[in-house]
Design goal:
Order of helices and strands: HHHHHHHHHHHHHH
Transmembrane segments: 67-87, 93-113, 125-158, 190-219
Oligomer: single chain
Number of helices: 14
Structural class: mainly alpha
Number of domains: 1
Number of strands: 0
Protein name: DUF2189 domain-containing protein
InterPro entries: DUF2189
Distance between the termini: 52 Å
Pfam families: DUF2189
Radius of gyration: 22 Å
Shape: globular
Keywords: Membrane, Transmembrane, Transmembrane helix
Largest sheet: none
Length: 285
């Protein structure tokens, strides 16, 4: 029997009830936790970093074309940032945008974590498998955490603009060459670089502490967002040196992969994404 809308008022009521039910389920997914499987954080050593990278490289070799296809958009985004940087009004924010893009990297690599998880479980790992995340019971929690990182990125860009305005701004640079000369030959330019680097490092630390294992953990276990974030913070607290070394490695690799024209990101991002899954597996029992 064909379905009809029927009475508009009753149809609207049913739609509201359905939306409310979905919202309740989403909230349950965000806060749910299995008390029988509370994550236990391990003590890490610096030697765990190359081991995670080796495992990530192995995953990349097993699904090279699929992983490269998934991250092909990253170089395009980088090139778009460079093109926008030729607009002199946007030029002072070009470096903050490029560097700040790493803040949302943990969320952008979620499909790579899923591929590594599936390979570890002996399942198919084609690029379509990465979209299984969309059917994950933790999707609402994953999206919530991704929104946090996106908000952190936006706030960082606003702060970077404020730092520029307080040093070399607020007027837009007259030319690219003139702007570079201001940065490296004036006290205000050096102040902008030093303050911007310090503040940017604080934003990077905030993103790293919250997300270093939380995304893979949400995929691996239905623990809920609060437990995932708390576990990530505990990993950072218990293994601060190793986590900072991991963050520095990721940041350096992304910078190197951005030269020239971000083409290297096609290789760097998949390896780092797969390695992040294995770093999580070493960090959480």
């Amino acid at each position: 029997m064909p379905r009809t809308i029927g009475n508009p008022a009753s149809w609207a009521l049913r739609s509201l009830q359905s939306a409310g039910s979905r919202s309740v389920h989403a909230l349950d997914d965000i806060r749910s936790t299995d008390s029988r499987a509370q994550p236990q954080v391990r003590q890490l050593a610096l030697s765990d970093i190359p081991l995670a990278l080796q495992a990530g490289w192995s995953d990349f070799k097993a699904a090279r074309s699929d992983a490269m296809f998934l991250v092909f958009i990253y170089p395009l985004i980088g090139i778009a940032m460079i093109i926008s940087g030729f607009h002199l009004a946007v030029l002072p924010l070009l470096v903050p945008m490029v560097m700040g893009f790493a803040l949302v990297g943990p969320a952008a690599a979620i499909g790579l974590y899923e591929m590594s998880r599936r390979r570890e479980a002996g399942e198919a790992i084609g690029w379509m498998a990465a979209f299984a995340v969309l059917r994950s019971p933790a999707l609402a929690a994953i999206l919530s955490l991704a929104l946090y990182l996106a908000a952190l990125f936006v706030i960082w860009i606003m702060v970077a603009e404020a730092i520029f305005n307080a040093t070399l701004g607020p007027d837009a640079p007259g030319s690219v060459g003139g702007f570079l000369a201001q940065i490296f030959t004036t006290g205000a330019g050096w102040t902008m670089m030093i303050v911007g680097t310090a503040v940017g490092a604080a934003f990077a630390y905030a993103a790293l502490a919250v997300s270093i294992v939380s995304f893979p953990l949400l995929l691996d276990r239905h623990v809920g967002l609060p437990v995932a974030v708390a576990t990530s913070l505990e990993v950072m607290r218990k293994n601060r040196l190793v986590c900072l070394a991991w963050g520095a490695l990721v940041g350096t690799a992304l910078v190197v992969g951005s030269v020239p024209l971000f083409a290297g990101l096609i290789f760097v991002v998949p390896v780092l994404g797969h390695a992040t899954w294995h770093f999580y597996r070493r960090a959480v029992a």
